[in-house]
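Weekly structure sync - notes
Attendees: PM, LS, DV (DV joined late)
Agenda: review two folding runs queued last week.

Item 1: First target. Sequence and structure tokens pasted below for the record.
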Amino acid sequence: MVSSSLIDAVKMVSPRYRRWKRLLAGLTFDPDGLSRPVERPGERDFVICGCPRTGTSFLSAMLYQPPSVVTVMEPWDGMRLPPAELFASLRGEIEGSGRMTRGRLNVGALFGDGRVEWGRDGEFPHPIRVGDGYVLGVKWPAFWRYLELLPDTKFLVCLRDPVEVVASLRSAGGRIAEGLDYDIPFNRRMNDELRAATRDAALRRVLLYDYVNSRLLPYLGSANVFVVRYERWFDENDALLSEIGGFLGLDLGPGPAAIRPGEPVRDPDVEELVRAHCSTSEALGYPLPGATA
């Protein structure tokens, strides 16, 4: 039987792992280093953010509706460039080449059968036709950090029930399953605080949910913020898209992503952790498991 330490050692010397570490080493940007006030993106640019596993990818896919609106999912340049420069760079590529080579969304699968599928940044380059005055969105969950810095930029903030999110974090694998985000300067302060709080990955997943959402809460009533609750996709998606369109100044279509409701999470261990340690659930509008009305 091969030991886990041997497997880890082989992984660490593999070419793929070395490429990954080189990529992370090049992502040196931290919003704390930006001069204030921070230069805002354009008036027709918007941000999709929220805690991981709250539906940010699904929202990005639903809003990929060229020629009126284009979304770019997690381009690594978002961890290299300040916001105004990032959006200008993406617009330059779209308008200059009629293509998008960045982002993780598989546009072919999306328009083929409605699948929300993603891969590596740049894995699915595709042509884009845009109209005059098109709207451009960038999806990065961690861009909640810009809420304080960009009060005039529009944000779509995703929320979801904590039990569902914490269970999904566990099944996602990688650092997210450990209750941490990418090991880069953009996330360093959060990762350090979460590591210091506990060595228990199960508890840290709950604390990750709380960490992000406690920083979202002060902005959820702001005029430049629209809250997208994941649960609304399954019983009022038409109304939700209409409201998002009004917020962005667009007439949105029904959206290309297929809505496929999953089974509700019923995990007593996750529910118990959330009930014992989640401090933001009630304020976000999600009663704690087992709580009485």
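Item 2: Second target, run right after the first with the same settings.
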Amino acid sequence: MFGIGAMMFKWNAHYHGDDNYFFSALYSVGGICFIINGYDGYTPLSLSYYISGALIGLGSAGGNYFFVQGLRHGPAGLTSAFAKSNIVIVILISALYYGEALAVNEIIGIAAILVAMIVVNLRLGSGGKSTSTVWFILMIASMILIAFRNGGLKIVNEISLTSSLVMALAYFLCTIFFSAGMLKNKNKPWVSNASKLKVLSMGGLTGVASFTGLSYYIKALETGPASVVVTIFSLDMIFVLIMSYILFKERLNRNQMIGFILSAAGFLLISLK
């Protein structure tokens, strides 16, 4: 589901869809799905729900926004791989907070991901080409903000909040933010290669995919080790790499492919227990 969602993000980037329309539809539909899923009779929510929703909403909206911008400057497979590298931030913060020693395979896996970040900025071979500096900065921003979302969901589980309600709050806050941007720019000319209806429709479908993927992700966090769960869910980047080649004819150059392979190897090593 995350892989399908990522390809819809790529569609929006490819057709230069208006991000405010796309994200307004995504978060409104996703928010409705979460509130239906988490509703169990009306009860006043504590302040912890609103704080958690705001922080996770910030991570989700900011991370996804920079992810879409990254898709406009780089190939989908590599962009997805680097966005998933937020796992390094989550693991390191968890290790510092809980005082857990990192296993050898985790250290090697993290090192492989960090090396991948270096490799994609090198020129390998006579025909080698480094990635865009703008793309790299966008991906660093996306990684940090998505780590807010993923780490926040783990904390929500630990303090026994209802994850679906927290996500509903987060998504509705994001809806308000992007809808305000949509209204602010309503008089500007439409420059997308797709109609408003198509952008809104694709955003809504992405919201369904996002809800479904995050629902499975939340359930997995409740029943399994966070490092393994996050890593397995990160492997949707392989699906994205294949589908971006089939649908958008995207190919990775030599250093991008090496960086992708190193990232995938790093994720697999981290997941080993």
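Discussion on item 2: The first helix runs from residue 2 to 14.
Action: LS to circulate a short write-up before next sync.
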